[in-house]
Amino acid sequence: MYHLSLLAGRYSAVDFRLPMMHLFAMDGFEIPSGTIASAGSALLAIPRGFHRGRGVRKAWPFLLVVMLPTFIAAIYYFLIAAPQYVSQAEFVVRGASSQPMGMLSSLLTGEGGSSADEDAYVVQDYLTSRDAARTMLRTQGGAAMFNRPEGDWPARFPNIFTGATFEHFYRYYKRHITVDLDTSTSITTLQVRTFRAQDSQAVAQALLVAAEQLVNQMNARKRANMIGSAAKELAEAQDQLRDVEEQMAAYRNREALLDPLKQAAPMLSNINELQVALTSTRIQLAQVQTESPNSPSIPVYQHRIAVLEDQIARSNKEVTGSKTSLVPKITDYDALVIKQEIVEKGLAAAASALISAKGQADRQQVYLEEISQPDLADYATYPQRIADVLIVFATFLMVYLMGKLIINGAREHQIV
What we know:
The chain is an alpha+beta fold. The protein contains eleven helices and eight strands. The chain has helices spanning about 35-80, 105-110, 115-125, 130-140, 140-145, 165-175, 195-255, 260-290, 295-320, 325-365, 385-415; strands spanning about 1-5, 15-20, 25, 30, 85-95, 175-180, 185-195, 365-370. α1 (about 35-80) packs antiparallel against α11.
């Protein structure tokens, strides 16, 4: 056997073992061994080119999946992307009950926050809501601010990736308006991003005005809800009192009596006097009959007693004993008086409840306090070119590695 040891490029030595052939007869020709050695040298050149082609084929998935998107992102962020300016403002929603609490108070109150904290979440949601977006369209021309000529075409609104409807604008709006609430300090941070620093500041100021109007509306609604119930009860008590007074006036007109109790007092006093006179006359009659049974004054006393008894009977009939007497009238009048007293007490309680509700509503008022006004940016904050390109590279690199792992796993599974 002949041994050929050759070094080709960066490849290691390759041993070719060729069968010893002094002569190889083919159709009458003889091939010397030197020719065979030349053919082996020619074969060495094939693996070098062959491995170079395999390297290129192995690299093109990485170039296509990772490097190409990174190259496109670099071109966009460094050559096309327009600067965007951020205006930031900070505010806090406070109330009368928004006082700093100690550790013991925090433990006693538990997890529940104050009314001002709840309203802060409401304001946060409102600033990123469709109502706020419509307010920006109506008052600030929000669509025009996001479509400035200096903005790059992929970042403007509308663009080739979005439509021109309100829903598309609302999605675009939420990407450029951020509202963060720090639960530890209750401070809300508002950030607005546009292609001009003046536009960002104007939009932030308009959103703060809208948020303050929302807080005022919540105060008015809360006050109306708290006071409305007490005011309704007071109005009902006033109507009931008015109805009782009308019943009292109708009774007095019908019975021709202002106050049956007061008017019955003289009648009862008169009956009492008649009773006294009757008793006195009977005593006198008894004395005369005892001392002088034949006295001519006896019939006089007897007549006087009969007259007194008749007068007492008639007076009693005026007070009691029939439907036209004072007793039924006094009974009806007493019922009206008791009803009036109950309604008056209810009216006083309703008035007191209304005053208490007003005081409580005043104590629960909340307001928006601005900590920092929307600033005018001196330089562009976005895009963050290097960071964005690195994010694109890392994202597609992860996709590439995951895909490679999946493919290799599938191949090993097929081999097994």
